[in-house]
Amino acid sequence: NSNNSNNNNIKNGEEANSDSCNEQYGEKLKFLEEECKTPSIFERSEVLFQWFVLLKEFIKHNLFSFFGPFSIPVIIAMDGVQAAVNQGFLPTMSVFIFSIQIFLWATYAFPVILWLYYRPDSISPFEVLLYTCIVLIRNLIIGIKYGFVPVAEMDRRKRRLMNFLTFGYELIVFGWSKIPEKVLEEELDASFFRLDVNISNHFFEFDVTPYQSMPRALQTILQDHSTHQQQQKHGYSKQGTVSRLSLQHDPLHEHRAVQCIRVPAADVIRHLWTDATSHDFNPSNLARILAVIQWTLPCFARQLQGHGFLGDSVTEVITVFGFLAFAIFGYGSLLSFVHVGFFDFRRRLFMMRQCSALWSAAYKHYQNPRTQSLPLLYLSDKSINAWHICRQTVLDLGRRYALRVQAYMSVFLAVELLATSWLLYQLIAASTIDFTSLLVASFNIIVLSGLFLPLIIYGTLANRNARVHRDILNFHILRIRSHKAENRLKPLKQLEGKNNDNEPVAPFEHEETLLSSCDALLEAVREEIKLADKIRPLSVLGFRANENLIRSLGALLLSTVAAAVSNLASKTSI
Question: pTM to 2 decimals?
């Protein structure tokens, strides 16, 4: 009978646990259905690439690039009027976007029509082919951007009007270049959902005892806290409250009490990202300068062949100036997509260093003043968990934009390889040298290599910080185990009351439990970092960013330059 009663109790307990789990699961689904509607967390967190959307958008934008407004009926037939309006093919949403579309079409189509009609000798076919390739590459980049937009969001854009700000955040480089607050909050929600973290339950505990006044970075976090507390009423970015803790016993120093302040993890993560983006510069002027240099190269080639700098007739001058306007906006916009990747890697490196500074005063001492202003963490379970989530969020935040950047880099790598192949063909296999293609190919190899190299360097330094994180955690693990060994050598006695300085002293058993818990947590986080560094490092073009990739790029450049110089010298001597 007693066995039967025990079995019944166990069965009833399992049913109660099952009902509790089902109830919690139902509440979570209800929360997601009610609070996360447009765009939903499901859509923002799931990053999928749609090849069909890429192909369709590539065709649509090529139609408009070559045929201009005459292609609008075909575009409307493919996706509907509302989608055409939202993409700037009709002037209803924004006259500015529609004007840019018309301007790019006119500055490419009219010069090409003039060249096809008059066939001037001073403008080589390669120059026209160059700007045609720029059009195709630009439209391919646009198709890649749309390929990363969630399916449900693409369907909604066929039924309702999209405002200009949303267009800029989602489809232009503003979304991950300037990073508006709206985009940051949505990407934070998506990252917390992917990591399966309820961020409102996690806090950083900072030790403010060594400071006479609050550290500058902590002052900024506390000032921004109230604003975000009012705005974030729901969602995975919901925050807790800032609170000052009573004097805490330092588990690694027997007679030291510390004053801690508990700050929501969402506030700290948001501050780190905002601080990392506060010193981004605008490279648009550099892109325009490079576009003008790109335009002048065929002009220099014309002079080498005995023609005028801009051509020999009014028609040729008009054609060349048309290509100049297209180069500034078309080629310049292509380079702007690369600088987004540069900013992304630079920010992640900066935040990885800030994560290191939160645990180590020695590391913080050698960093910039902004990183030095960060307070140090108090050794506790809450701080370790919050720091681990912060580090995971730093690497995961903006996954959709980061994958876009990877796709852009792949396209530009293909362009660089084609330019290198064409350059070597001209210098080795071709009977005559086309100076226009020679100058253009050499220039693009230099520009793209100069853009790839900083990306790889920043990615390498960020990946190296994963090793720094492991070393810092190892240091704290050794401190804890050393202190535990010292405690075992001391006489075991119960510590009660207060010490001579009127500071609370933790009982020995409580201190031992806290140290053991922190030891186990730090070791688990260290192993997770080691595994994540192996399977999910920062990569460039699908390769881990490290010193070997830098050497490979340098070897490719040096070998190309050596082959080009030797063959050019032999051909000119002949």
Answer: 0.77
Cβ contacts of 89 within 8 Å, gap of 6 or more: 60, 64, 72, 75, 98, 101
H helix intervals, 46-150: 51-67, 72-79, 81-86, 95-118, 125-147
**Other Cβ atoms closer than 10 A to 35:** 14
Pick from 392, 31, 92: nearest CA to 235: 31
The pLDDT value given to residue 398: 81
Q: Judge contact between 396 and 474, C-beta under 8 A.
A: no
Q: How far is CA 77 from the centre of its chain?
A: 35
215 backbone dihedrals φ, ψ, rounded to 5°: -55, 150
Lowest mean per-residue pLDDT among 152-166, 256-270, 293-307, 467-481: 152-166
Buried b / exposed e along 136-158 (16+ C-beta atoms within 10 A): ebbbbbbbbbbbbbbeebbebbe
Cα angle 412, 417, 421; round to 5: 145
Number of Cβ within a 10 Å radius of residue 395: 19
CA distances from 8 to 14, 16, 550 (A): 10, 12, 67
Q: Write out pLDDT tens, residues 359-413.
A: 888 887 777 777 777 888 888 888 889 999 999 888 888 888 888 888 888 888 7
Q: Sign of the C-alpha dihedral, residues 476, 517, 470, 401?
A: negative
